Amino acid sequence: VEETLVLIKPDGVARNLTGEILRRIEAKGYSLVDMKLVQAERSLLAEHYAEHEGKPFYEPLIEFMESGPIVAFRIAGNRVIEGFRALAGTTDPTTAAPGTIRGDLGRDWGVKVQQNLVHGSDSPESATAELALWFD
Ligand code: GTP
Ligand code: MG
Known about the structure:
- There is one protein chain.
- This protein is globular.
- The protein starts with a strand and ends with a helix.
- It contains 7 helices and 4 strands.
- The chain is an alpha+beta fold.
- Helix content is 43%, strand content 18%.
- Strands 2-3-1-4 form a 4-stranded antiparallel beta sheet.
- It binds guanosine-5'-triphosphate (GTP) and magnesium ion.
- Residues 52, 57, 61, 91, 113-114, 116, 119-120, 122 line the site of guanosine-5'-triphosphate.
- Guanosine-5'-triphosphate (GTP) binds next to strand 4.
């Protein structure tokens, strides 16, 4: 069965939305396989976001992800990678569709990086690599 990495980013943990976000994942019918609270090291975040190195939002993104604890979930289910991306909504929380995690719970806070509550792996290759990075 397919698995994906979901992260509750520091804004989601700080706003006490971990339970609400997990509730949505479980209500959709996906299974929780593993979870942990982590204060991420810069080296871990640099690997996780290697594809964005050099972009203008890269440094604020890494600083934001270092700013507080993150909750990491290993989630399983058929087509869970695309299914969770649909639950999460599009990247910009201001315009993410209502009904999604980002659309219902997120907004623009006037800071340098988009604080959009969650991360979900975007392909089978990134899910495999990211699960190894965060859990193994
Ligand atoms: P992740 O699940 O975090 O990977 O989000 P995503 O897949 O929806 O977006 P992407 O991988 O393209 O970007 C990673 C993160 O960088 C986003 O979640 C945002 O926090 C931030 N980001 C991406 N694009 C922009 C942008 O154009 N401006 C700003 N300020 N931040 C951005
Ligand atoms: Mg991404």
